[in-house]
Amino acid sequence: MSKTKEKTPNYPCGDCGIGVKYSGIKCTGSCNFWFHGGCVNITDKELKKLTEVETSSWKCKNCSIFILPLTSNLSSSPCLSIQQTNATSATKSDVLNNSIKELERSLIESNSLEDPSNEEHKLQMAAKIGSALLEENKTLKEEKFKLETRLTIVEGKLEETENNEVKYIEKVEILLQKNAELQEQLDKEKQFRRETQDIFEEYDRQKEKALREQENTIMLLKVKIKSLEENKENNTTQSQNTELRRTMINSETQTHNLDILPQNSNSFLLAELTYLKLKQREMEQSILNLQTQITSKQQPEAHSTKNDSPTSSGQPNKTLSRSTPSKNQNISLRRTQNKKNIFSVSLQAAKHKEYLETPVDVNRNFKNTPQSAPQTHNNRDTDPRTHSNKISIKPPGTKITPNSDEFYADLIENEIKRQSLETHKETRKAMLSQVKKPNKTNSDIEEANRNCPETSKGNSNRHFLEIRQQEEAKAKEIITTRIFLNRKFWRKE
């Protein structure tokens, strides 16, 4: 604000109420009053030194009091002590101002300042005013320092708040970004759940459709099974009728009453039958070996070399096997004597001869099997090693069908006999070649026996017997597998 001039309007002082003519200052606060310099404790020199900025920002005591609480609210808790000190300093300055004002009023009233005669009193008043001004200046400096410190504290706090505001703004931005990402992820999860729900619903529909189709197929299969069972019953009756016809056709060579065997046999029974037959053959072989050993001990060595079939080859004596009938033959004779033969014996003999002349083929088909084969050709089997008759396991006169267990057992037995006969012939030739070698002395024979103990008299029979047993075991395995496979093939046809 500009300084006051001499020709100024009459403005009342805000403190004393007297019009301000010169040496005055205007308050820039809410009151807008003019004040005398003495009323506000400002000298003429100080008024002259004031700049335009200071005069434009000057405020009276009352206006400054109303503003101070607002500024004090800006400060935080650490500035409470500063506020208290400011309050105390303000009270001191008020006391000084009041004392100065009282002095000025007393001077104005008494007009002692205008009286030049009263020098001493003037000096005293000037000293008092100077001391008061010094104290006021001191208090103002303290207030200024406190305000500066307060300002620096407030500025520091303001910077901290600004920094915190920046940090909070950054955090808010980060949180908003995270919120957007989470919202996007939530939308994706919702979409994924919808897709999975649709997939499961579609899967349930497919399963339901498949179950319905399965139910329909099950119903159709039940109907087919019923029809197949009916066809099976019809086929069984027809097969029984055809079996009766076959038995009636082949009954001209039978010597016993007509019997019908069950068609559906078990493979387990077949295996047991073959096992029993093989065990029986092994027992017979061991008995024959014992007989050959006994006969070889009884007969002289010269007689054994002249015979065509030496005893060391494992062949039994033909006269013994033919002259001494076994118990099985006696049992069969007793059975046949009780029954009278009411059929043609010549036809039976012719069919039996034809069957013996035909070779046994294991891999033959069901269609190639001769239906006109004799029904009693398996009652007696001829052993090629002993050339003696023996009775088979099954009863006499049983009918053999291609799908029966007896048929496969007989095939196995005949094949084993054939292979054992071939091995027997080979061993016999080998033994004869060893016996007929000329120009061998006793010393050569002893040396050969030492080098190869298997060719000695005591061990030759055992050696060829072991070879034969090994070959028979191999033949059994091969034949059983082939016959089981052929049996499956026949059943399919």
From TrEMBL:
Please report the stretch or stretches of sequence annotated as the Zinc finger PHD-type domain.
12-64
The UniProt entry's coiled-coil ranges are 144-245
The keyword Lipid biosynthesis is assigned to this record: no
Q: Where is the composition biased (Polar residues)?
A: 365-377
Q: Which UniProt keywords apply?
A: Coiled coil, Metal-binding, Zinc, Zinc-finger
Q: Which GO terms describe its molecular function?
A: zinc ion binding
User: What ranges does the record give for the region Disordered, renumbered to this chain?
Assistant: 293-337, 358-402, 428-459
Question: What SUPFAM superfamilies has UniProt attached to this entry?
Answer: FYVE/PHD zinc finger
Instruction: List the protein's name.
Output: Zinc finger PHD-type domain-containing protein
Q: What is the lineage of its organism?
A: Eukaryota, Metazoa, Ecdysozoa, Arthropoda, Hexapoda
